[in-house]
Structures are given as C-alpha cells and as structure tokens.
# Entry
Amino acid sequence: MLWYKYWLETRWRLVLVLVVFGLPLFAASRNAGATVANLTASISVLWIVTASMTAGTGIKTQSATLGTVKGLHNSTYFTLSLPVRRSTLFGIRTIVGLSVMLVAMLVTSCGICLVLGSAKADVTLAEAVGIGLAMFVCCLAFYFMSSLLSIYLDAQWQLYGSMLVAGIGWWLTRSIHSPFNLYRPFGEALPFVTHIVPWEAMVTSVAVAAVLIVVTLRIIETREF
Amino acid sequence: MSDFVIETRDLRKSYGGVAALNGLNLEVRRGSVYGFLGRNGAGKTTTIKILIGLIRSDSGEARVFGLPANGAQSLEIRRRTGFVTEDKDLYPYMTVEEMIRFTRSFFPKWRADLEKRYLEMFELPPRRKTEALSKGMRSKLMLLLAIARGAELLILDEPSDGLDPAGVEDILRELMALAAAEGTTIFFSSHQLHEVEQIADHICILAAGRTVIAGPLDDLKSQYQRIRVVLDRQLAEPVRWVDGAEHVQQDGRTVSILASRNIDGVLAQAQALPGASVERFPVTLKEIFLEHVRSH
# Structure
C-alpha cells in the first residue's frame, strides 16, 4: 500500500510535467520553422525541473494535488509510526518517483520526434527512446539532490532550493568542457543535436546519485522530524 | 517476561539546549490504563515520540515490551503498538476506507471485527476524504486504526481531542472495555482530568520533564485529603502547619488545607485551633494535579 500512497502523491506531478513539456512541443508543432536545436534548447532546463518535481518531499507526506504544503504535514508521524523501516519508505518513494520521471522523459523525447517528424528531428523513434533513457540517467543526480534537500525543506522550498543548487552547480562548472560535466547534455551537448550518447555525463550522474543515496539514507535513519 | 510494558530510566532529551525531559522514570504495568499528565511543554509528547521510535533520547533508557526504543527493535515495538498522534493528521487525499485499507496492510493481526464495530459506532463515512473530516472524526478514525491492528499497547496522545461530550463518553467506554476484555495496556496523555479520573488506574504527573508523582490512582487519592476549617474568628497570626499540609489557603475565617501523608497530624492541629469546626473531604485528581504542577 506504500506504493499506492506514493503514487497518489506523485500522479498529478506527472501530469504537470507532461503539460509543461507539452506546451513548447505544441508550439513547435504549429511552427513550420521549428528545429530540433531550438526546441530542445528551449526545454533543456525542464529536464532538471522534472527531476526536482518528481523527487517531491521524499518520505514526508506530500500534497496529492499540485498545492504545496508549508512545513511538515503531521501525518508524517503516522507514516513513521508504522512498522516499516525508513530506508524502505525511501526505497519505495524513490522507485515511484523515478518511474514517474522515466515516463515523463520517454514521453517527452518521443514527443519531440513525433512533433517534428523523424526527418526534421533527425532521429528515429527508437533513437528518441534511447535519448530519453540517457536524459533520465543524466537527471538521477538532480533527483537525488532534491531528495536530500527534501529532508530539510518543505514542499515549497524543496523545488526552489533544488533549482538554486542546480544553478550554482551549473555556474561553478560552466568553464569545464569535459564530457564528464553533468550539465553538458542539457546545454552544449544535447543528444538530440549531437546524436552522441553522453556516457561520461551519465557516469558522473550515477556516481553523484550513489553518493547522495548513501548520504540521504544515513540522514533519514536518524533524522528527527 | 517483565511485568512492565513501558519502562524508562533517567530519560533525558534536549532541544537546542532546552531540556524537554530531565531524568524521566516511568513504569507502566501490563494491562493497566495509565494516564500521563502534565502541563503543555512538560515533556509528554517528547516521551511518546521516544517510546514509538520517532526521536532518540540523549541519554537514559526507554524500553517497550522489554525492547530498547532507541534501537533497531523499534520496528517490533511499532508492530505491537497502536498510536494516536497529537494532531490527528492523516493523509488528506485518502478516504476513510483507503486509510483503513492502507493501515491494515501493515498489520497481519488486523481485527476486521473491531474495524466493522468502530466504523459503525463512530459513524465514519467510508467514502469521505480525511481532509474533509472534523478533528473529532479524525480522532475517532485514528483510534479505529490504532485499535483494529490488534495492538498489545495503545499509546494515545490526547485521544479525545476535538470530540463532543457524547463522543468522549463513547471512546472512554470503549477503551475501558478493551482494557478489560483484551488486556490491552493503554498509555494516554490528556488535559481532561475528569476523563483520566474516569478510566485510569495508574497516573503519572510530569513537570519540567520529570515525574513528580506516580502510582495507582486510588492510592494517590487516598493519600490526600482536603481539610476545611471554619473558625469563629479570624486568626491574628498565620499558622505554621505541620509537615503534610501541602497547600493552605485562607479566606477570612475559612482555611482550606490540602494534606498529604501525616493527615492525622494536620487534622489534630486544625482541631486544636480556637473555635475550629473541622471537616475532611476526598480530593479530586484535578486538585492533586494542580498542587503538583503549580510549584513547577
């Protein structure tokens, strides 16, 4: 039933993310001059927003609608008083959140291909699926960064905080042109444009995510909410 | 097996240098109905959170079912315990029915008979979302979720909060029946002292994070007497009362004394006053409570 609880908390976020991604795609579909380069550039930051949105408030109770709850919703105490380990709560919340994020990213990358047409987008539907998966892996670091912040921030500030940290990260690494730079697939090395799978950035993302998972788990096991 | 379901020894907890618990000692006997009393900020909710494993004590020891509440076995404690939180907040987006289904999935010993009984008795609307329920209705739903899991121990933080007098009566009656029929230990905090007096067989009064008085309620009440002295004229000088006169209040020719221990000594001293007419009365829990928290 924890799966059900977390699905109730994230399903409207999936809808919101799809709408947010859908708007530029819709605009592109009405614009004969739209190119894959300018379309993907216009939505590049949305991949990171999606990661923060789907991470939500972690193991704490979150609004099922898109409203944000200020502070800690006291039903969190009810959750924590159940005979379930906090690591299990975190694990199930993560699987639900990542599943929602994966769906959003696959739908978006396939949407780009379908909206622009294979010829204009210069990728096949199968390649679009591959790019969606690559973007998903590149977003893991941002997802778990948001997850970590959600321990300390409420629903409202978690999103702002995540975007702030992501912005600071981009600013600090902007002059690093290494393929391991986590931000390259969202900017200068957009896979839709380069047709190159950003393996190095994916490795960085997975490594950062792994560290953040360990840190988050250690904190939530002892954190007093 | 220990006779005590809950035991704490010198339990301490501070928040930012402010002590919430200051060496708390508790012993809650199996099958008892235990009233846990204190003013706001006395440390009741902190104690409850430690027992259920939501927070950790700084030092001292807390055991539930003989298991350390701070340790990994807190999972086992939560499996055998029903908990009603202070705020009565449940998932706002779930209906009553969904909340029950959700909670049931964690407890293999779930009592469908009790679920049905309380759903009907409390008149809970199954299809209504919990955010649309009044606080009283949420209290009832939380109680249902705590009881129907087949818990050996119920830890209830202000269980009657938000209920109308009829609702309070229903809940108190059910808790007493549960303790009698199933042998469930009930540990509850409340500010409604008449409710506590109605159902508790043991109490603990907490002040500034430590126990100031604890024991069987009947014993405590028998230890105390209210002695009223009516004099034929006002005393010229205040009386220096013997040991045992806990609280003395003088209003004109009437002196009211709350006596503990040495009641015969206090009585004798009162009767020795010139022109004194002395009466003694049993005390209420409220009087005992006020006497002990007033001085802290």
User: Anything to note?
Assistant: Residues 222 and 282 of chain B are 8 Å apart (CA to CA). The mean pLDDT of chain B is 90. The interface with chain A takes residues 49, 52-56, 75-76, 78-79, 81, 83, 85-87, 89-94, 101-103, 105-107, 142 of chain B (CB under 8 Å). Chain B has ten helices and 14 strands.
